[in-house]
Design a protein that fits this description.
InterPro entries: MFS, MFS_trans_sf, Proton-linked_MCT. This protein has about 400 residues and is an all-alpha fold. It has helices at about 10-30, 30-45, 45-75, 75-95, 100-120, 120-130, 135-145, 150-165, 165-200, 210-215, 220-250, 255-280, 285-305, 310-325, 325-340, 345-395.
Length: about 400
């Protein structure tokens, strides 16, 4: 299997960034689902209000993604990401002492700003700016490590909450973000920015923003196709994952087995990313994206069929996890391959605005589909949507104006 170590490759910076990303994902994203039931039981806050607040957090992070991208294009990535980690730590510390639901909601909305500056989108923009054609390898490595953020967040929050309550757990996550994530993000992104500046001196300098806007008309179609494809796949995964336990319950699957099926999707995402590393020289980015569409679409069919043949639930786990696991890698890589590196951060943020919003709204759309025609209709719509995503990726020209090599 290929490794991240090779001459000129900033492996140490990528490793530090991967650990930092794992921590910020655990602290700012997975803390919410990890502590949700404790907020309900300890504070008496309703699940509907709590989850609505988190949905608002995700939507706000999506809206701010282009702004974060523009800062990265201007070389402000280190300050943005390290500053977001510090700000997020302060917000979690404030969260741990609040007794007001309205203040709780306001803090989570503010964490949406933090997410826009600390999670995958800004991270991948920094990496792409620094490494260009080598970004795919680095991004895959980062997602392999950060894929275990939930594995860190859920047990850590559970154990600390058992000892001292959810407030102590929130304080622990804040400390982890402030004293571990922030320094790692600062050091790694500072070195990557230096790498980007050295690389920029050897290649064509980015075009002025006005000139880039003039050229945008000819790039609207590929941008639209990429955004449509990734938004659909992200929304499909979000819908299925959020409704997975109710779907399996409607198939009369036992609670223990249903939880086991749900727990298997995450590890299979890591398997999908490992496959990218193993076959990166033999599979183009476009082929990987098309395969992801096929895998997620077939997974919906397997989930539908599991009511008749329970063993299909195993195949669902393999297809859903490994298929979607490649998406977070392919999105920045294909964007660079298709539209080039000029103003990459802003363009990536614009794409994230749509894809993240789609993923945030998908669970609600799934509930509406369930009301209309049950989960049979819901899964049928997911399968058809994956066909649309496949068509969008297939419509991209085989040879781009800005090749990856």
């Amino acid at each position: 299997m290929p490794t991240l170590s090779r001459p000129g490759f900033p492996a140490a910076s990528i490793a530090a960034l991967a650990v930092g990303e794992t921590i910020v994902w655990a602290a700012f994203y997975y803390t919410f689902p990890a502590l949700l039931t404790r907020w309900e039981s300890a504070e008496g806050w309703g699940k509907t209000t709590l989850t609505a607040a988190f949905a608002g957090t995700i939507m706000l992070s999506a809206l701010l993604a282009p702004f974060a991208g523009r800062l990265i294009d201007r070389g402000r990535g280190p300050a943005l990401m390290a500053g977001a980690a510090c700000t997020g730590a302060c917000l979690l510390a404030l969260l741990s002492v609040t007794t007001s639901l309205s203040l709780f909601v306001a803090i989570w909305l503010a964490l949406g700003v933090v997410m826009a500056g600390a999670l995958y989108e800004p991270c991948f923009a920094v990496v792409t700016r620094a490494l260009g054609p080598s970004a795919r390898r680095a991004i895959t490595g980062i997602t392999l490590v950060a894929g275990f953020a939930g594995t860190l967040a859920f047990p850590m929050n559970h154990w600390i909450s058992e000892i001292g309550g959810w407030r102590l757990a929130a304080q622990a996550m804040a400390a982890l973000a402030l004293f571990c994530a922030a320094p790692l993000l600062w050091l790694s992104t500072s070195r990557l920015e230096a790498h980007a500046l050295a690389r920029a001196s050897a290649i064509e300098r980015p075009r002025p923003a006005a000139e880039a806007l003039d050229e945008a008309a000819g790039r609207r179609r590929p941008f639209f196709l990429l955004t449509l494809g990734f938004a659909i796949i992200g929304a499909s995964h979000s819908l299925v994952l959020n409704h997975l336990l109710p779907i399996l319950e409607s198939h009369r699957m036992s609670d223990d087995l249903a939880v086991l099926v749900a727990a298997g999707v995450g590890p299979m995402q890591v398997v999908g990313r490992l496959a990218i590393l193993g076959f990166e020289r033999h599979l183009s980015n476009r082929v990987v994206a098309l395969a992801s569409c096929v895998a997620v679409g077939l997974a919906a069919c397997c989930l539908f069929g599991s009511q008749f043949l329970p063993l299909l639930a195993v195949l669902f786990v393999v297809l859903q996890g490994s298929g979607y696991g490649t998406v977070s890698v392919m999105r920045p890589v294909m964007l660079r391959e298709t539209l080039g590196e000029a103003n990459f951060g802003a363009t990536s943020g614009q794409m994230a605005r749509y894809s993240t919003s789609a993923a945030a709204l998908a669970p609600f759309a799934g509930s509406l589909l369930w009301l209309i025609g049950g989960y049979e209709l819901t899964l049928l719509v997911v399968a058809v949507a994956c066909v649309v995503a496949f068509t969008a990726f297939a419509s991209l020209a085989a040879h781009q104006n800005h090749p990856s090599t």
